[in-house]
Structures
1.
Amino acid sequence: MDFQFIFSLVVLLFSVVIHEISHGYAALALGDHTAEYEGRLTLNPVKHIDMVGTIILPVISIRDLIKMKKAAGRDVDKLDIEELKKIRNLKRRNDL
């Protein structure tokens, strides 16, 4: 693994933790002490791990992204696009 990828993961992890702490403090300010009781008002990333949201969902998402990369590209007929633009412009003129 190259340095940039590892650095990106560390920054992502830190950002997610700060984001979740912010949710906790916002809830606390509004009177909800759940995050405080569960010990989630900490920089410890382990306290913020959720099996579904942190592990399963990203794994499924990455798998689907890999599948999408393997999809074949499709040709685009620019004449069709030009025809659609002409039709849309005609409709706009008729609406005036």
2.
Amino acid sequence: MNDRTKARGHHNLLAWQEGLVLVKMVYQRTSDFPKEEIFGLVSQMRRAAVSIPSNIAEGAARNANVNLFTFSVLQEALSANLKLKLLLPVIWVFLRLLQQLW
């Protein structure tokens, strides 16, 4: 297997394909965030989302099960990080509603 074939191997991985869908969703959802969050939460969320398929591709290109496992663990951590950041706006809205009620 040559270097060019190795680099393309990640295209067949479902995790990589789903990672691209996630990136698109995060970019779409964060486009409506307040402008003051562009360099804060929006930037962090977008970088975390892009890191997931990027790390899968890098791990697959190295073509070693140990490396792919390491990058899979890293992807899991990035996913957890992104999940928290996706929850933050929901929490903010909930807190604002609570403040209005009190």
3.
Amino acid sequence: MTAIQIYTDPETIRFIKKARKWLLLSGMLLMVIVFVSVIFPMLATIATELFIGWIFIFSGLFNLLIFFSYRSMRPGCGPY
């Protein structure tokens, strides 16, 4: 199958047309976010710190969940 055959497939064309609106919308949203972060760098810094902090919290909770689920396994199957 060549690249021309892939892009002329009707299903692929429908998918590209459907995704085009969302790609355009997300690009415009990212441009607005960048513009606001250039104007208000302190606000962008605080938002980034909060976002990364929540990622750390959720990853820590997920790791605790995995840790305690290993304890319920038979000996020798867990990480220890």
4.
Amino acid sequence: MKRTPLLTKSKSLVGVLYSQRLHGQVRQTEFAAGIDDRVQAIVDRANVARVEAQTAVSGSVFAEADYLYPRVTLAEDARRMANSRVPAVYAAAFEHDGVLARVDILD
């Protein structure tokens, strides 16, 4: 059985992001240096908010599957969503018409 590749937001933006990255590397090297302290602080706050949100809903789970393996992620998240004892799945993935979506909270 031939598997159809999944379209994701990340894959659809690759062309745009690549050209921006290339421009940054060639013309604006100070912007291509990587994650600065400000961006890292935003990521850290998002992680804290994720943990707080997950603990606020008893029985909720966080989808731990690696984004590099979408089929595994889809199978694990489908199993979580089918479990009536799990009220919410954080960072859940699902597929519709060949488009892979990752959502913040799925309940």
